[in-house]
Design goal:
It is built from 8 helices and 7 strands, in the order αββαβααβαβαβαβα. It has about 240 residues and is α/β, with parallel strands linked by helices. It has one domain: Rossmann fold. α6 packs parallel to α7. The relative contact order is 0.15.
């Protein structure tokens, strides 16, 4: 079987993620040392344990919604996750520390292989912000979305904008979100950005939303669940 990366190349996916002649594609230009399009395993000590767990769930569980991402996804409080999304028979495939290239590795290594969730909720790119330009993060997220379209062609994707934090200028985060929003075709790929709900009228992060520079508090997850659950309900029907 061709690897996922080879499959993507053979399909020549581009633009709105429909097939296009390979000759019309210009290869992405990554100038930073970190390449968000090259699948590599995560470097955190818990990566292989969690990846192994998700491989097992892929093989043994039937799930309708898969949440995929980094620690912001992984750290959903279990009780709140169940309250908001339990009726969709969900799984949470978040791994702390993950960047675009680590999610690509996971997909290429078997996560979601032969799975047919009705919806994949993806938030990724936060950890790439300190290592890549905004344009490169957009390329990385785009590559992940393309990979998901190959891996799970019958699954809808809800792509979430990355969230404001105190560690990255919000202008950069907004530039990334503006870029990835263009991936939405409103058929198989949908986009939502609830990040502004974490901000006050002056664009500053509201008190109580973040536990540290990046991660959400329960109050922050309440915003996520409140804003996104109606979208999920529409897409899972």
């Amino acid at each position: 079987m061709l690897g996922l990366v080879a499959t993507l190349a053979s399909l020549g996916l581009s633009g709105n993620l429909r097939a296009a002649p390979a000759a019309a594609e210009k290869p992405p230009v990554i100038k930073s040392a970190n390449d968000p399009t090259k699948p590599v395993p995560g470097g955190v000590r818990w990566f292989w344990r969690m990846h192994g767990d998700y491989l097992n769930q892929t093989k043994t569980k039937k799930f309708d919604v898969c949440f995929l991402g980094d620690s912001i996804t992984q750290m959903w409080p279990g009780d709140m996750f169940g309250t908001f999304f339990g009726k969709y028979n969900p799984v949470n495939f978040g791994i702390g520390g993950d960047r675009c290239e680590n999610v690509l590795f996971r997909l290429n290594d078997g996560e979601l292989q032969d799975a047919t969730p009705k919806l994949i909720v993806l938030m990724i790119g936060t950890n790439n912000q300190g290592m890549n330009t905004a344009e490169e993060v957009v390329i990385g997220v785009t590559t992940v979305v393309k990979a998901l379209r190959v891996k799970c062609p019958k699954s809808r994707i809800l792509l979430l904008g990355i969230l404001p934090s105190t560690g990255t200028p919000y202008d950069k985060t907004k530039a990334i979100n503006t870029g990835i929003a263009k991936l939405a075709d409103k058929q198989m790929i949908h986009y939502q950005d609830f990040g502004p709900k974490l901000l006050d009228k002056d664009g500053k992060i509201l008190p109580g939303m973040l536990a540290d520079a990046v991660h959400l508090t329960r109050q922050g997850y309440q915003v996520w669940g409140t804003e996104v659950s109606p979208t999920i309900e529409k897409l899972v029907k």
